[in-house]
Amino acid sequence: MATMRFQSTRDVGVTAGFSAALARGLAPDGGLYVPQYWPAIALAELSAAQDLPALAAGLIGPFAEGDALASSMAAICAEAFSFPAPVVDLEPGRLAVLELFHGPTAAFKDFGARFLAACLARLRPPRSPTLTILVATSGDTGGAVAAAFHGRPGSEVVVLFPQGRVSPTQQQQLTCWGGNVRAFAVRGTFDDCQRLAKQAFLDEPLRQARELSSANSINLGRLLPQTVYYAATALALAGPGGEPVSFVIPSGNLGNAMACIWARRLGLPIGEIVLAHNANRTVPEFIGGAPWRPRASVTTLASAMDVGDPSNMERLRAFYPDDERLRAAVSACGVDDDAIRARIRADYRRLGRIWCPHTAVAAEVYARLSEARRRAGRWVLVATAHPAKFREIVEPLIGREVPVPASLAELFARPSAYREIEADLNALRTALARDETEAGE
Ligand SMILES: *Cc1c(COP(=O)(O)O)cnc(C)c1O
């Protein structure tokens, strides 16, 4: 039986097995892990899969071949894919929306975070020291990671978020967990939070006191599970004729889009892939022919996509080493906040649909495609979050309350607790140690 290995985007000689790649996150040379080869997937078998967990096991299983986790893949997928990813028609036969917001924190990041947590839990020998997952967040990632690890023995989560710079709804989702999840409001920006997390991973005293890990979005264990809902949607809509299905994907760090490209590479009937960006136009400008020019991010209504230097670009460029081939393989478009607002209003009136600001970016980018392109095949808008997560933005635009799904209502009802810290490593060290003493009292 073949053993799958993963190689660094920077050096094909730096490799790891499935488990090691997930545990490490980043390759030791600073690159990102990508598969050494593309396994042959039996599409007929995948099509016959009865549900999302079965399809997930069929699709991800070959990537874990020869690894310690291979035999647990069915159980891991059953645990991670415990909620649906429905495809809802907007214009029958032409346009549909893939709803990725039915998980515990109502954003697509639940899929990746839950898969990674289910894998890491099985990699730790019994009675190993507590694993501390340190996660810097500007909003959605922290909540998804906290939810995925909450209540799991042997692990704790420390969320770092910028004080006063996340919405009240987002803050509630970061600070409502208790138990093995702690939230620190950092007096600084998101960049300060990220810097603190990086410093912590390099800090000898901290690393001696606890085993640190990140559940960063560049982790292979968050990317691979995201191929599953593209596969499910493409197989469901392509029909027996295998007509390819095209996707418009709200994008920031390009993890979700990369997963779609991988799914297409695995042979799924996927046609066009359109990257929908907000006013952070690094990617649309590059795809449009300009040189690659990463920059600082600008703040927009679609805040989870406020990225000026997308981390997964390194994977994308490793996949298409020739820029011109990359530019032929995907397209990209950037839209500003005014267009997001107008699209939320218009589609509520026209379709009765309420979009979150990120999904609205995809809806707007689709609307800007030429009529000929839109008519050329079936299209799917990817809905990355539930609008109730961004109700402060959405409700004034549509003039009504956004219905809150049960999973979010439960989170909103929990008591919130967090500690404020200065944006420096000493403060983080002290806070980590102090909370432990208190918990022991
Ligand atoms: C994270 C996020 C995105 C961007 O996804 P990437 O994989 O970083 O491109 C889009 N929408 C929502 C709601 C998100 O939370």
How would you characterize the overall build of this protein?
The protein is an alpha/beta fold and 441 residues long. The protein has a domain at 84-108 and 221-405: Rossmann fold (3-Layer(aba) Sandwich). It is built from 21 helices and 14 strands. The strands form three sheets. The chain has a six-stranded mixed β-sheet, with helices on both faces. Strands 9-6-7-8-14 form a five-stranded parallel β-sheet, with helices on both faces. The longest helix has 16 residues, at 425-440. The chain starts with 5 loop residues before the first strand and ends with a helix. Pyridoxal-5'-phosphate is lined by residues 107, 109, 140, 217, 250-257, 304-305, 358, 384-385.
Rg, alpha carbons? 21 Å
CATH topology of the domain at 84-108 and 221-405: Rossmann fold
Strand content is 15-25%
Question: How far apart lie the N and C ends?
Answer: 52 Å
Parts with pLDDT < 50 across at least 5 consecutive residues: none
The average pLDDT is: 93
Q: What share of residues is helical?
A: 40-55%
Query: For the largest beta sheet, what order do the strands appear in spatially?
Result: 4-5-13-10-11-12
**The top level CATH class name of the domain at 84-108 and 221-405:** Alpha Beta
Structural class: alpha/beta
Total beta strands:
14
**What small molecules does this complex bind?**
pyridoxal-5'-phosphate
The backbone outline, from C-alpha atoms, is globular
Mind describing the biggest β-sheet?
A: 6 strands, mixed
CATH architecture of the domain at 84-108 and 221-405: 3-Layer(aba) Sandwich
Please work out how many helical segments DSSP would assign. 21
